[in-house]
User: Which sequence fits this backbone?
C-alpha cells in the first residue's frame, strides 16, 4: 500500500529538511544547527508551545487537538550523528569531516517534523501530542538527561512512543515485538594487581597475567553455565593490557582487562552483574591477586509495553496492511536510550523499513527518503489509535 496523500505531500518537503540535516551532522549534546532548524520549523507550523534547551539542545513541541481534552502522549525522535567519515558519494553527503548521519537520525527528525506539520494544521484529535526531539542518543544518554530535567512531569506525558529505521526491512514494512526488544549494554574495566617479579622466579611473584587469563575464560561461564540458555546474555572481553614486549623476562605487577556485557531482561542484568563481581574477586584471589572493578552502566533493556505494542501494531497495520507488519521481530543485542523513557512510562518502539541499505553505523549507510511518508503516516495512525 502507498502512503496517504497528506503524508506524501509533506514528505516531499521533509526530504529537503532531511538532506539539509544530513549535510550538517552534529554530535551528542552539541546540536546548535539541528536544534535551531527543528525549533524554527515547529514555530512556523504553529505548534502551541516550542521549548528549546532541554538537555542542552533538545527541543519539545506541544500540539493540542481540537476535539477537547484527552490523554497526553509523547512521540520521541533522536537528532544526533556519529563521529565517522561518510563514504556514500551522495550529492548531499556530510560537509563536516569525521561526522556522519550513519544511524538515520536525520530521517527520524525529518519524519517527526513532517508529522508536526500535519498535526498542527489538522488537530483532528482529543488531548495533546508532545513531540520530543532528543540529543545524544549515540552514547550520551540524552534521553536520560531529558528525564532528569523533568520532561515527563513538566509536559504531563502519560505514554511514550519511538521509531527507528531498520536496514534490511522493506520500505513500507514495520516490525516490533512486545516485551524486551533491545539489550542493556554495560561496560567494564578490571585492574588486576599481583606482585611483579623475575620470569625465572614465578614463585616469588603473584602473576596477574595468569589471573587475567583464567578470568577471561571464567567470565565465559556466566553465559554458558549461569543463565538460562533461552535468556540471551553476551559477555565479551574486548581489551587486555599488561606487561611490556621489551621486558619478556619480567612478570608485570598489574594487568587490565575490559569489555561489554549485554542482557535482555532487567532481572538478568542485575544477576549477571552480581555473578560477574563474584567471579572476578574469587578468580583473582585464587592466584593471589586483587581485582578492582570499574563497572560502567550503559542503556537499560528496551522494554515494550504489551498493550501499547498492540496499539502500535494496529496503527502500522492500518496504513500498510497486516502482512507488512511483523509483530514478533527478533530481539537484538544492540541498545537504545529510549529505554529510559520506557522505564518510566508505558509505550513502544517500532522498526521502520529502510529497504536494502547499508547497515546502521556503516560509512555507506543512508536513510531512505521513501520511508519518510510511511513514518509520518505511522505517527498519524498512532494518534488515531490513542487520541480519538
Ligand atoms: Zn546508532
Ligand atoms: Zn540510531
Assistant:
Amino acid at each position: 500500500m502507498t502512503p496517504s496523500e497528506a503524508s506524501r505531500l509533506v514528505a516531499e518537503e521533509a526530504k529537503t529538511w532531511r538532506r539539509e540535516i544530513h549535510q550538517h551532522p552534529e554530535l551528542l549534546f552539541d546540536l546548535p544547527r539541528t536544534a535551531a532548524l527543528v525549533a524554527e520549523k515547529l514555530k512556523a507550523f504553529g505548534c502551541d508551545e516550542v521549548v528549546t534547551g532541554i538537555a542542552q539542545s533538545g527541543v519539545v513541541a506541544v500540539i493540542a487537538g481540537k476535539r477537547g481534552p484527552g490523554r497526553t502522549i509523547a512521540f520521541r525522535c533522536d537528532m544526533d550523528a556519529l563521529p565517522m567519515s561518510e563514504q556514500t558519494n551522495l550529492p548531499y553527503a556530510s560537509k563536516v569531516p569525521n561526522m556522519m548521519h550513519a544511524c538515520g537520525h536525520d530521517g527520524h527528525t525529518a519524519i517527526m517534523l513532517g508529522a508536526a506539520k500535519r498535526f498542527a494544521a489538522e488537530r483532528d484529535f482529543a488531548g495533546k501530542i508532545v513531540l520530543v526531539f532528543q540529543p545524544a542518543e549515540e552514547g550520551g544518554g540524552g534521553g536520560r538527561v531529558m528525564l532528569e530535567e523533568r520532561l515527563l512531569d513538566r509536559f504531563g506525558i502519560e505514554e511514550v512512543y519511538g521509531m527507528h529505521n531498520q536496514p534490511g526491512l522493506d520500505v513500507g514494512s514495520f516490525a516490533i515485538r512486545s516485551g524486551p526488544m533491545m539489550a542493556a549494554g554495560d561496560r567494564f574495566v578490571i585492574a588486576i594487581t599481583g606482585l611483579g617479579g623475575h620470569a625465572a622466579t614465578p614463585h616469588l611473584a603473584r602473576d596477574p597475567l595468569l589471573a587475567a587469563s583464567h578470568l577471561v575464560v571464567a567470565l565465559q561461564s556466566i553465559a554458558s553455565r549461569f543463565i538460562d540458555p533461552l535468556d540471551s546474555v553476551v559477555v565479551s572481553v574486548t581489551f587486555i593490557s599488561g606487561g611490556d614486549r621489551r621486558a619478556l623476562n619480567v612478570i608485570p605487577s598489574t594487568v587490565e582487562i575490559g569489555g561489554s556485557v549485554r542482557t535482555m531482561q532487567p532481572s538478568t542484568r542485575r544477576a549477571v552483574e552480581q555473578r560477574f563481581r563474584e567471579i572476578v574477586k574469587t578468580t583473582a584471589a585464587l592466584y593471589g591477586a586483587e581485582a578492582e572493578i570499574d563497572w560502567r552502566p550503559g542503556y537499560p533493556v528496551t522494554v515494550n509495553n504489551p498493550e501499547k505494542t498492540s496499539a502500535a501494531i494496529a496503527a502500522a497495520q492500518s496504513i500498510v496492511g497486516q502482512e507488512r507488519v511483523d509483530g514478533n521481530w527478533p530481539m537484538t543485542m544492540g541498545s537504545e536510550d529510549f529505554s529510559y523513557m520506557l522505564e518510566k512510562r508505558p509505550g513502544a518502539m517500532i522498526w521502520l523499513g529502510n529497504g536494502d541499505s547499508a547497515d546502521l553505523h556503516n560509512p555507506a549507510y543512508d536513510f531512505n527518503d521513501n520511508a519518510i511518508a510511511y513514518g509520518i503516516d505511522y505517527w498519524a495512525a498512532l494518534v488515531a489509535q490513542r487520541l480519538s
